[in-house]
Amino acid sequence: MPELPEVEALKDFLAEHLVGHEIVRVLPVAISVLKTYDPPLAAVEGHEVTAVHRHGKFLDLVTDGGPHLVTHLARAGWLHWKDKLPDGAPRPGKGPLALRVALETGAGFDLTEAGTQKRLAVYVVQDPQQVAGVARLGPDPLADDFDEARLAALLKGERRQLKGALRDQGLIAGVGNAYSDEILHAARMSPFKPTSSLTPEETTRLYEALRTTLTEAVERSRGVAAGRLKAEKKSGLRVHGRTGEPCPVCGDTVREVSFSDSSLQYCPTCQTGGKPLADRRLSRLLK
After folding, report:
1. Quick check: 212 pLDDT over 90?
2. Could you tell me which of 45, 27, 1 has the C-alpha nearest to residue 98?
3. Average pLDDT over residues 13-33
4. Number of Cβ within a 10 Å radius of residue 286
5. Nearest CA to 167 among 143, 195, 198?
6. 0.90 surpassed by pTM
7. Cα–Cα nearest to 54, from 121, 128, 114, 163
């Protein structure tokens, strides 16, 4: 799933390629991708793109005098830029293509989604706050006013595990499965550590890991073409998706805990005092 750093890079890429250009056609290929109907999708046609914003993991195309085109790529969605779009309208079918946006220059982009679970979402709204997922977002962890005190205040009173808290978009916007693993590895904390048990020193470590991990990932992604962002993300991960490989910090073997529809990775030496976590849905430290 694209997370804050990749969506930030896509925002910058689209701002460079879209701003100042007119959207001439928006072609839905998979009807399920469109989550709003008023205004209609065609309402963005004939309008110039004036800005591109990011709200958590949402991309927001702002048009001059028209509505916003807001996209969430979900788990398996992606954006493919084309300097020259194919001639003719794409045919609906079983392929990954979900939506095509064409500019007056002949360039544009496709939104695609792999797999059978179709969660890619496109909204046409007058205000991005009309999108429920945007309206419920917590603060952006890379915002100038997101300091250690802000993080401490967010976690105060929470009664859950750190992994779940970091992934909660209503608490902190933009962090998903991959970067929560990376942040906790950098902070040297178990993914199942209760938020209520954090000491002031641990809160400082978590804050520094959060900001540093995301900032470095954004810098790695900045300037990378949209088509190469997935590979760039994977190359920068230390533990996520690296089960069985040596930890780059201590050399211990990266372990995994699997759930019904996802998994997490961690280093026992760096994060759990050398103890492996039980690999079952309600995981806890083995005794």
Report:
1. yes
2. 27
3. 95
4. 10
5. 195
6. yes
7. 128
